[in-house]
TrEMBL record:
Keyword annotations: Membrane, Transmembrane, Transmembrane helix
The organism's place on the tree of life at top rank: Bacteria
Provenance organism: Desulforamulus profundi
Name under which the protein is recorded: Uncharacterized protein
TM regions (residue ranges): 29-56, 68-89, 101-122
Length: 140
Protein backbone atom coordinates (compact mmCIF):
# COMPACT_ATOMS: atom_id res chain seq x y z
CA UNK A 1 0.00 0.00 0.00
CA UNK A 2 2.84 2.39 0.75
CA UNK A 3 4.12 1.97 -2.81
CA UNK A 4 0.66 2.83 -4.19
CA UNK A 5 0.36 5.91 -2.02
CA UNK A 6 3.88 7.03 -2.90
CA UNK A 7 3.15 6.56 -6.62
CA UNK A 8 -0.12 8.49 -6.42
CA UNK A 9 1.48 11.47 -4.71
CA UNK A 10 4.42 11.38 -7.14
CA UNK A 11 1.96 11.68 -10.02
CA UNK A 12 0.24 14.60 -8.32
CA UNK A 13 3.57 16.23 -7.50
CA UNK A 14 2.63 16.47 -3.85
CA UNK A 15 5.41 16.13 -1.28
CA UNK A 16 4.37 13.92 1.60
CA UNK A 17 6.44 12.62 4.47
CA UNK A 18 7.39 8.97 4.74
CA UNK A 19 5.68 8.87 8.13
CA UNK A 20 2.35 9.91 6.60
CA UNK A 21 2.76 7.46 3.73
CA UNK A 22 3.30 4.63 6.21
CA UNK A 23 0.38 5.77 8.37
CA UNK A 24 -2.01 5.87 5.41
CA UNK A 25 -0.65 2.56 4.15
CA UNK A 26 -1.31 0.97 7.54
CA UNK A 27 -4.88 2.32 7.65
CA UNK A 28 -5.61 1.18 4.11
CA UNK A 29 -4.02 -2.24 4.66
CA UNK A 30 -6.04 -2.79 7.81
CA UNK A 31 -9.30 -1.98 6.04
CA UNK A 32 -8.40 -4.23 3.09
CA UNK A 33 -7.32 -7.06 5.37
CA UNK A 34 -10.64 -6.92 7.28
CA UNK A 35 -12.62 -6.91 4.04
CA UNK A 36 -10.64 -9.89 2.70
CA UNK A 37 -11.47 -11.90 5.80
CA UNK A 38 -15.19 -11.22 5.95
CA UNK A 39 -16.45 -10.69 2.40
CA UNK A 40 -16.40 -11.75 -1.21
CA UNK A 41 -12.99 -12.13 -2.91
CA UNK A 42 -12.10 -9.16 -5.10
CA UNK A 43 -14.10 -6.67 -3.07
CA UNK A 44 -10.88 -5.59 -1.35
CA UNK A 45 -9.71 -3.98 -4.62
CA UNK A 46 -12.78 -1.76 -4.68
CA UNK A 47 -12.18 -0.88 -1.02
CA UNK A 48 -8.54 -0.06 -1.81
CA UNK A 49 -9.65 2.18 -4.67
CA UNK A 50 -12.17 4.07 -2.56
CA UNK A 51 -9.74 4.37 0.36
CA UNK A 52 -7.03 5.66 -1.94
CA UNK A 53 -9.43 8.20 -3.46
CA UNK A 54 -10.34 9.50 -0.02
CA UNK A 55 -6.71 9.71 1.12
CA UNK A 56 -5.73 11.65 -2.00
CA UNK A 57 -8.76 13.92 -1.75
CA UNK A 58 -8.13 14.64 1.92
CA UNK A 59 -4.34 14.95 1.90
CA UNK A 60 -3.62 16.13 -1.65
CA UNK A 61 -6.33 18.78 -1.71
CA UNK A 62 -7.33 17.95 -5.27
CA UNK A 63 -10.80 17.46 -6.70
CA UNK A 64 -12.61 14.20 -6.15
CA UNK A 65 -12.51 13.56 -9.90
CA UNK A 66 -8.73 13.99 -10.05
CA UNK A 67 -8.20 11.74 -7.05
CA UNK A 68 -10.46 9.08 -8.60
CA UNK A 69 -8.67 9.30 -11.97
CA UNK A 70 -5.18 9.03 -10.43
CA UNK A 71 -6.27 6.19 -8.12
CA UNK A 72 -7.75 4.16 -10.96
CA UNK A 73 -4.60 4.72 -13.02
CA UNK A 74 -2.33 3.51 -10.25
CA UNK A 75 -4.54 0.51 -9.41
CA UNK A 76 -4.54 -0.38 -13.14
CA UNK A 77 -0.72 -0.28 -13.21
CA UNK A 78 -0.65 -2.47 -10.09
CA UNK A 79 -3.02 -5.00 -11.67
CA UNK A 80 -0.87 -5.09 -14.83
CA UNK A 81 2.28 -5.61 -12.73
CA UNK A 82 0.57 -8.34 -10.73
CA UNK A 83 -0.60 -10.11 -13.89
CA UNK A 84 2.87 -9.87 -15.45
CA UNK A 85 4.58 -11.26 -12.33
CA UNK A 86 2.12 -14.16 -11.97
CA UNK A 87 2.26 -15.13 -15.66
CA UNK A 88 6.05 -14.95 -15.64
CA UNK A 89 6.23 -17.15 -12.55
CA UNK A 90 3.79 -19.66 -13.99
CA UNK A 91 5.75 -19.88 -17.25
CA UNK A 92 9.04 -20.38 -15.39
CA UNK A 93 8.03 -22.59 -12.46
CA UNK A 94 4.48 -23.85 -12.91
CA UNK A 95 1.25 -23.22 -11.06
CA UNK A 96 1.00 -20.51 -8.38
CA UNK A 97 -0.90 -21.72 -5.33
CA UNK A 98 -2.34 -19.27 -2.82
CA UNK A 99 -2.03 -22.07 -0.25
CA UNK A 100 1.75 -21.50 -0.12
CA UNK A 101 1.72 -18.32 1.96
CA UNK A 102 5.46 -17.67 1.73
CA UNK A 103 5.46 -17.92 -2.07
CA UNK A 104 2.35 -15.75 -2.27
CA UNK A 105 4.05 -13.03 -0.21
CA UNK A 106 7.26 -13.31 -2.25
CA UNK A 107 5.29 -12.83 -5.48
CA UNK A 108 4.12 -9.48 -4.13
CA UNK A 109 7.64 -8.04 -3.80
CA UNK A 110 8.28 -7.51 -7.53
CA UNK A 111 5.05 -5.52 -7.73
CA UNK A 112 6.14 -3.33 -4.83
CA UNK A 113 9.52 -2.74 -6.46
CA UNK A 114 7.86 -1.90 -9.79
CA UNK A 115 5.54 0.64 -8.13
CA UNK A 116 8.32 2.30 -6.11
CA UNK A 117 10.58 2.52 -9.18
CA UNK A 118 7.70 3.98 -11.18
CA UNK A 119 7.10 6.58 -8.46
CA UNK A 120 10.77 7.58 -8.39
CA UNK A 121 10.88 7.86 -12.19
CA UNK A 122 7.75 10.01 -12.21
CA UNK A 123 8.97 12.18 -9.35
CA UNK A 124 12.53 12.71 -10.62
CA UNK A 125 12.17 12.73 -14.41
CA UNK A 126 8.69 12.68 -15.92
CA UNK A 127 6.89 15.26 -13.80
CA UNK A 128 9.69 17.91 -13.92
CA UNK A 129 10.05 17.42 -17.70
CA UNK A 130 6.29 17.66 -18.18
CA UNK A 131 6.00 20.84 -16.11
CA UNK A 132 8.99 22.46 -17.85
CA UNK A 133 7.53 21.81 -21.31
CA UNK A 134 3.89 22.75 -20.84
CA UNK A 135 1.95 26.00 -20.94
CA UNK A 136 0.47 27.06 -17.62
CA UNK A 137 -3.10 26.88 -18.91
CA UNK A 138 -2.58 23.40 -20.39
CA UNK A 139 -0.99 21.76 -17.33
CA UNK A 140 -2.85 19.85 -14.66
Amino acid sequence: MAALIFTVFAILGFKISTRKILLYAFELSLIIWLIRIFTVPGLHTLAALLGLVLIIYRQGKVTLGTSFYVSISVIFVLICAETFVHFTYEKLFGNVSSEDTFLWVMLGWPQIIIMVCLAFIIQKYIRPTFLANCNKKDCL
